[in-house]
From TrEMBL:
Entry-linked InterPro entries: Epimerase_deHydtase (IPR001509), NAD(P)-bd_dom_sf (IPR036291), UXS-like (IPR044516)
UniProt entry tagged with the keyword Lyase: yes
EC number: 4.1.1.35
Protein's name in the database: UDP-glucuronate decarboxylase
Gene3D superfamilies for the chain: NAD(P)-binding Rossmann-like Domain
């Protein structure tokens, strides 16, 4: 028997997962972190290991997992395009088999389960900004489809378990999120630009840089995850989770160069196929249901992230992707 809330975080040693574990521990929960270290290392959670309320299990969620917990946050999945395209079959298995196993676990225990879905379910959107009611524009056989369609199938599974087994589910559609502990070499735009700027290397803009993204600082995102999971229990989502501030990739590059005082020059490179042209969340539902709005402005969040990467470079402890 346990009195404290025991929370399972899959993908817990990843970028977002490590921040979530940290926050849950701060609030007095017991945390079981499950990760197969596919795209992360123990480094992100090393500082949590001495905490007696923190437990780390090396496990691949595509295999069944039997633990006793009170709630689940399912974050396990490679998230950056180069990571999820590295082994597309494993990406689909993680999205789909991982979801089935975690839903099976939640069903056995009759506990709430959160799914980290993604703005990628909207594909290359022809509705802008994207409300949750938009069904998306996804190429089902393109290079990004292992992730996009994997996550769409996971959403479908979550709602099927909810309807068929009355399971309490929460489906959050995360938009681009950034902050300390992003992988320095996972190819995502924020980490790439900061690393390039700090090292005086060319800033690689794919296409002409007119495509847009909306960037949410990790602390704002974790706050919404907790409010979504804990309040308004009847509301299952899907819920857009992101910062509606919209920036062109060229604009982001210029801001990073300015904040790092870098001498880097911009280098234009080919645009990958199926790269969405614009993306911005409609966050009306998050405001209405949870009174949530992001608090950290891009400039402020970038400064925190830059200082993290500066320390990483200075320590000489650069992790592999
Ligand atoms: P990340 O790569 O840092 O973290 C993912 C973690 O999942 C890693 O620690 C990885 O080792 C683990 N993992 C991968 N496959 C696994 C498996 N089969 N079994 C167990 N562990 C596995 O990425 P992140 O940015 O922290 O993303 C976390 C979640 O949020 C992902 O599901 C991602 O799809 C979603 N998401 C993130 C963003 C973002 O901008 N960061 C945006 C949309 C959605
Ligand atoms: N599962 C799990 N842990 C549990 C319960 C179930 O990993 O505590 C897995 C189990 O391996 C199964 C999957 O979740 O394949 C789906 O479970 P469900 O009960 O929905 O399906 P069934 O067992 O009937 O196939
Ligand atoms: N991008 C870029 N240069 C880079 C990395 C990414 O111009 O070094 C662009 C990429 O083509 C996309 C945007 O930045 O238009 C966001 O890319 P990211 O991989 O971070 O996320 P996603 O495409 O999944 O939103």
């Amino acid at each position: 028997m346990h009195l404290r809330k025991r929370v399972l975080v899959t993908g817990g040693s990843g970028f977002l997962g490590s921040h979530l574990c940290e926050r849950l521990l701060l609030e007095g929960c017991e945390v079981i972190c499950v990760d197969n270290f596919f795209t992360s290392s123990r480094q992100n959670i090393e500082h949590l290991l001495p905490n007696p309320r923190f437990e780390l299990i090396r496990h691949d969620v595509t295999f069944p997992l039997y633990v006793e917990v009170d709630e689940i946050y399912n974050l396990a999945c490679p998230a950056s395009p180069i990571h999820y395209q590295h082994d597309p079959v494993q990406t689909i298995k993680t999205c789909v088999h991982g979801a089935i196993n975690m839903l099976g676990l939640a069903k056995r225990l009759r506990i709430p389960i959160f799914q980290a879905s993604t703005s990628e379910v909207y594909g290359d959107p022809d509705v802008h900004p994207q409300p949750e009611s938009y069904w998306g524009n996804v190429n089902p056989i393109g290079h990004r489809s292992c992730y996009d369609e994997g996550k769409r199938c996971a959403e479908s599974l979550f709602f099927a378990y909810h309807r068929q087994h009355s399971l309490p589910i929460k489906v959050g559609r995360l938009f681009n999120t950034y902050g300390p502990r992003m992988h320095p070499n996972d190819g995502r735009v924020v980490s790439n630009f900061i690393m390039q700027a700090l090292q005086g290397k060319p800033i690689t803009i794919y296409g002409d840089g007119s495509q847009t993204r909306s960037f949410c600082y990790v602390d704002d995102l974790v706050e919404l995850m907790l409010r979504f999971m804990r309040n308004d229990k009847e509301f299952c989502g899907p819920l857009n989770m992101g910062n509606p501030g919209e920036f062109s990739i060229l604009g982001l590059a210029k801001q990073v160069i300015e904040l790092t005082n870098s001498s880097s020059k911009i280098s234009l490179e080919p645009l990958p196929t199926d790269d969405p042209k614009q993306r911005k969340p409609d966050i009306t539902l998050a405001k209405e249901h949870y009174g949530w709005e992001p608090e950290v402005r891009l400039r402020e969040g970038l400064m925190q992230t830059i200082s993290y990467f500066e320390n990483l470079l200075a320590s000489g402890e650069l992790r592999k992707g």
